[in-house]
Amino acid sequence: MVAVTPQDDSRLRYAWRVCSVTSLGLVLIGIAGSTLNVALPTVVRHFHAGPLESGWILLAFLLVNTASLVFFGRVADLLGRREVYLSGFALFTLASLLAGFSPEVWFLVGMRVLQAIGAAMILANGTVIITDAFPPERLSQGMGVYMATLSVAQLAGPTLGGLIAKAAGWQWIFWVNVPAGLIALGWGALILRKMPRRPREPVDALGNVLLFAALSALLLALSEAGSRGLSSPVVLTGAAVFALLLPAIVLAERRSANPVLDMRLFGGRLLAYANLASFCNALARSALILVVALYFQAARGLDAFEAGLSVLPVPAGIGLASPIVGMLGRSVSPYVLSIGGAMLSAAGLGTLMLTADPGTPYWMIGIGLFVAGCGSGTFLTSNTTQVMRSLPQESLGVVNGFRVMVMNIGVVLSVGVSLSVLTSSVGPGLRAQVYAGTLSELSPVAVGQLMDGFQHAYAVLFAVALAGTLMAALARPQRAVASLDSTSR
């Protein structure tokens, strides 16, 4: 038995306090996202927003958040993770306050952009702060609790969003973040210690600008392709800009003394396939609550609160699986657990493919959602632990930013593709009713057409989940990687 020294005990107590801070950050962002997913029809009806504006209420956040993650990971490596992390809380809280005062829909979209920048500062650093605080042998436990808090947010979010939209008004969907943000900011300032900064080095300004522009162009093209078609000028322009900037990024990063993306860090087999598996899981998982909430409102005529209750099996599954996997991670390889999680996610989505009918029993939909949630909780905890254990300490920020960026590209794609596939089954004139959740009031024929869209959307997500299982299996740790991991500790 290994003796526990007072220093070890003190470090572990501090690590769990750090986990409470970072978990608050994840809860804040998770609630902000899941409340809006369920309450989107209420916001759309208030502003009389069309399909374009409705999509951008969600996509503006995802686009900007994704495109700025690597930048803030690098900035935190150089300027201090604590300072950047706490600044993210402050900006997110302020943007949430202003969003509730939005006089029109495009002002709201602008506040979502500011929320996205604050969230990027939080997300790019939360996992890194936990990794730095926990002893390596306890990291899987800390990561399990950290990921479980996502389920707390998603458990509370849909119900809270539906209740707020029904009882208090859409503004409180954003204002509810303000007290939570202030508490998180104060607790973080009290608990987090200043972390050693790397020596001052010039920031790769050109690389950051090129990367931000390329990602923005790509994500804009991907998000618009489904609704406007591949021949749309917006889609063609975005794809062309990305194709032109990609070789420029590679050339600039090779020449930079301090590249924002050090290509050498992403060439290993484990990181490459683990990130691809994470991308597929995010793509398969992220739009699920949104799609199912729209199903219950647009096809079954439930209100926002009832729809929020109906999607709770997803976060319940995540919340059950994440801490269990965190404990298992001390004796079972994260590689094995990530494969099992990916398989469970695919099984849940496969079950949901059989539920695209207005007469489907609720219990059958609940089983599919719960299994998919368990799979996501298992995969997220084990995949994150697997990646973070394999990295050298000095590169944690930028590589974690890259990891979360890859996941967020999957999120953007998931929302854009799922909504496009879903609404393609009905005519353009009825798509606004789908977003507003009022299609069930118009025509049984239209609802029948929409059911085809739900089945196709589930089928696409299921196929992606299967691809994620394959990528997780290919992310087998190599001896060289294990050696590097041991050395870095």
From TrEMBL:
GO MF assignments: transmembrane transporter activity
Alphabetized InterPro entries for the sequence: MFS, MFS_dom, MFS_trans_sf
Record's protein name: EmrB/QacA subfamily drug resistance transporter
Matches recorded under CDD domains: MFS_MMR_MDR_like
SUPFAM superfamilies, A to Z: MFS general substrate transporter
Organism this protein belongs to: Nonomuraea polychroma
Pfam family, one: MFS_1
Source domain of life: Bacteria
UniProt keywords, alphabetically: Cell membrane, Membrane, Transmembrane, Transmembrane helix, Transport
Domain Major facilitator superfamily (MFS) profile: 18-480
Parts of the chain that traverse the membrane: 14-34, 54-72, 84-101, 113-131, 143-164, 170-191, 203-222, 234-252, 273-296, 308-328, 335-356, 362-381, 402-422, 457-475
PROSITE patterns: MFS
Localization in the cell: Cell membrane
Its membrane topology: Multi-pass membrane protein
Cell membrane listed as a keyword: yes
GO cellular component, one term: plasma membrane
